[in-house]
């Protein structure tokens, strides 16, 4: 008597061909890539920026508390002490990047010093000037790739737009002057006085460096220049223009 359920009668499972396995792996890989493409803008646009707002508010409140212990402002623009690598020493406010844009700035431009950390994201070139010094205060941040892209909207800057750099001492106001594209090898953009028309030896330049083109591009660099205009001590609260552009800035808190 034949038993249809006998092991001999059971049909063996067909072996998967290499092409089938490869096809399935490609499908899984494609879904993973698609998921990352969807996740990355959401994470950058909401999670990281929200975290930065909270952290900068905390920093600002701590600096306000310290301000009471500082001597009265004597009219001399202060120069912060040079920080240790990885140390956060200021906040960059750029309304052109979004009215509430605020991002911490740390020392160093290495990926694992400042640029790849979502509690930092912007780094100062250690050999560049500090705020309040004549010369080139140069900072860097990602614009594409990864999930921390503070300078993603650098192309939104227009001549005359303000950029505010906040420290424990107060707020340094800069005005956007110009933008250029360079090859990654053109390090002269970090010179003490970069190639801008009309620059004087006493000028204070803020230089933003980032990758170009936007979204996964690294072939070139986008370089934005701004010139120092004014300083406002913490005892006077945030600049009125910053409050006007970002109503969330109140009471000396970012």
Could you explain how this protein is built, in words?
- The structure is a single chain.
- With 254 residues, the chain is of the alpha+beta class.
- The protein has one domain: Sortase, Chain: A, CATH 2.40.260.10.
- Helix content is 24%, strand content 25%.
- Strand 1 (88-93) and strand 2 (102-107) form a beta hairpin.
- The relative contact order is 0.14.
- Mean pLDDT is 85; it is low at 31-40 and 42-46.
Comma- or semicolon-separated keywords:
single chain; 254 residues; alpha+beta; Sortase, Chain: A; eight-stranded mixed β-barrel; 8 strands
| Poorly predicted sequence stretches spanning 5 or more consecutive residues | 31-40, 42-46
Radius of gyration: 25 Å
What is the average per-residue confidence, as pLDDT, rounded to a whole number? 85
Proportion of helical residues = 10-25%
Identify the overall geometry.
Answer: globular
What is the name of the CATH superfamily?
Answer: Sortase
Instruction: Just give the CATH class.
Output: Mainly Beta
Count of domain modules: 1
Q: Would you identify the CATH architecture?
A: Beta Barrel
Class by alpha and beta content = alpha+beta
- Put simply, the count of helices is 3
Any idea of the CATH topology? Sortase, Chain: A
Strand arrangement within the widest β-sheet reads 1-2-3-4-7-8-6-5
Topology, number of strands: 8
- Give the DSSP E fraction (strand runs of 2 or more residues): 15-25%
* N/C terminus separation: 86 Å
